[in-house]
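Journal club side-thread
Mid-discussion, someone asked how the predicted structure for our own chain would compare to the paper's figures. Pasting it here so we can look after the session.
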Amino acid sequence: MAVSEWVALVVATATIGFAKTAINAIGTLAVVLFALVLPARESTGVLLPLLICGDLIAIWIYRRDVEWATLLRLFPTVAIGILGGAWFLSRADDAAVKRIIALVVLFGVSLTARNRLRSRRRVESVLAGDRHSTIGAAATGIGTGFTSMVANAAGALMALYLLFVGLEVRKFVGTTAWFFFIVNVAKVPFSAGLGLVTIDTLRTDAILAPAILIGAVLGTSLIRRVSQDAFEWWVLGAAGLSAVLLML
């Protein structure tokens, strides 16, 4: 790879650490940047171990802030989504995977932007509804399982569900961290079986992994100094533009 491509991957990897410890929305940029630099199918395999590293950092920081009851409602249908995503990846070519990633990112951006434009009391969502909604949990589980397996881009869907469930901030972040750690670890055998996680991709991960710590340090130190509202809008705009570029 060219030096500029390595630089892009390092920046993308640093955003993983930042997203896991600060503003989750920026994680979408890592997915898009990896898919722009690498073949789309290969990018999912390279990205997965890096995401797990970021998850480990986040769950260490928020290890006591998790609502297991919420996660247990999701996991049965998450498994269905992961299996569906693995089946899709076994049959999809690189162009199809790239477009799926772009569509998932655009969908997540639109949902997040819609949520930010409307007050919580006015939002009605089939994904969550009541705190104990079986249908909402089932829909979210399948959706996050599939989009996570195919595109590593289920963050927006999960965030909306936890928002409507009504978790306070630390439990919101901690529950998200534990959820994606468990889901990402569960994806490893499928990704390895599909040839997406290999010795070569792990070598690439070993080179990039230190950048996660850089991002995590920046995230924990800068989160109090920036306007989260303004920053997230910039991230949403950048993610949307990047997704459009993937479609071209």
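Post-session note: The two ends are 22 Å apart (CA to CA).
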